[in-house]
From TrEMBL:
Name of this protein: GMP synthase [glutamine-hydrolyzing]
Taxonomy of the source species: Bacteria, Bacillati, Actinomycetota, Actinomycetes, Micrococcales
GO terms assigned for molecular function: ATP binding; GMP synthase activity
Organism name: Psychromicrobium lacuslunae
Source species, domain of life: Bacteria
Pathway note: Purine metabolism; GMP biosynthesis; GMP from XMP (L-Gln route): step 1/1
Function of the molecule: Catalyzes the synthesis of GMP from XMP.
Catalytically driven reaction(s): XMP + L-glutamine + ATP + H2O = GMP + L-glutamate + AMP + diphosphate + 2 H(+)
Keyword Magnesium: no
Residues of the full protein shown: 210 to 535 of 535
Keywords from the UniProt entry: ATP-binding, Glutamine amidotransferase, GMP biosynthesis, Ligase, Nucleotide-binding, Purine biosynthesis
The protein's assembly and partners: Homodimer.
Residues involved in ATP binding: S29, G30, G31, V32, D33, S34, A35
Length: 326
């Protein structure tokens, strides 16, 4: 008999049993899952928990600031921000294979948590003790699609499942591992998290790293970040945030096409809009966004983002497409 109340009670008890009086860190990504996982752990073990927000340089515009503001305001949790963009960009240099990118990002996340742990121990001075537990907001579909479910094929290695290094020093705490996204949202709301957090559209842990088709570098990230900010702002302005499950914006970094702007020729990259509607991300359909909105997004991106001269719309359902392109 599934109720959010039961889930919370059961998970709080499990977490307490698992971690005892140990110290815990939780990676916050800015998304719903990690926020709800953190709130559950906080409910269970209070200030044994420190949240770590890894700024991997693959974030969208304004995202780091938003996490610091919204989540800390809502929960009062201890937050450590780890600025790790250089580490991730160096590790990703020259890599364009999707699964390799995912594995590198998963590994670097763990390395970043290990560094954060050392910093936190140092900061605590004589009180400092080793942190044994790492909380992750892994959901049921992440487990299934990473090949962890019974008889499931490995479709993608989610950064927090199939992308973990072998020599992991932390013991994982994963209170959402049996839940679907809508259930996670209900749990978050019941725990008192504000709508801005529980209603947020999904965003993958590997971030823009898997939305650049081709090699990831700072310049390409900058292009994508600008285009994505425009697309999201227009979707919000059209009042369609809650109707659309999420809208990845994807940079086809190795593709260029000829265009014309003013009196001149351009030779720029295309951007793909991938708005989808879905119940649980296991299946999805492409969203029938109003043409006026698509026109506005296209005009603005091609006018405002130097280097992008074409906007295309992905009209593939899942299956056969997945939501993200990598
Ligand atoms: P796909 O692309 O597999 O995506 O149809 C399904 C949902 O999962 C999100 N996604 C991820 N989330 N870590 C995450 O936290 C990941 O590695 C990851 N890969 C995909 C995706 O945005 C969609 O909501």
């Amino acid at each position: 008999n599934w109720t959010t109340g039961n889930v919370i009670e059961e998970q709080v008890a499990r977490i307490r049993q698992q971690v005892g009086s140990g110290k815990v860190i939780c990676g916050l990504s800015g998304g719903v899952d990690s926020a709800v996982a953190a709130a559950l752990v906080q409910r269970a073990v209070g200030d044994q928990l420190t949240c770590v927000f890894v700024d991997h340089g693959l974030l969208r515009e304004g995202e780091a600031e938003q996490v610091e503001r919204d989540f800390v305001a809502a929960t009062g949790v201890k937050l450590h921000v780890a600025k790790e963009a250089d580490r991730f960009l160096e590790a990703l240099a020259g890599v364009s294979d999707p699964e390799t990118k995912r594995k590198i990002i998963g590994r670097e996340f763990i390395r970043a948590f290990e560094t954060a742990e050392k910093t936190l121990i140092e900061q605590a001075g004589s009180e400092g003790e080793q942190i044994k537990f790492l909380v992750q907001g892994t959901l049921y579909p992440d487990v299934v699609e990473s090949g962890g479910g019974e008889g499931a094929a490995n479709i993608k290695s989610h950064h927090n499942v199939g992308g973990l290094p072998e020599d992991l020093q932390f013991e994982l705490v994963e209170p959402l591992r049996t839940l679907f996204k809508d259930e996670v949202r209900a749990v978050g709301a019941q725990l008192g998290l504000p709508q801005e957090i529980v209603g947020r559209q999904p965003f993958p842990g590997p971030g823009l790293g898997i939305r650049i088709i081709g090699e990831v570098n700072a310049e390409r990230l900058e292009l994508l970040r600008k285009a994505d900010a425009i697309a999201r702002a227009e979707l919000t302005a059209a009042g369609l945030d809650s109707e659309v499950w999420q809208m990845p914006v994807v940079l086809l970094a190795d593709v260029r096409s000829v265009g014309v702007q003013g009196d001149g020729r351009t030779y720029g990259h295309p951007i793909v809009l991938r708005p989808v509607s879905s119940e649980d991300a296991m299946t999805a359909d492409w969203s029938r966004l109003p043409y006026e909105l698509l026109a506005r997004i296209s005009n603005r991106i091609t006018n405002e983002v130097d280097g992008i001269n074409r906007v295309v719309l992905d009209v593939t359902s899942k299956p056969p497409g997945t939501i993200e392109w990598e």
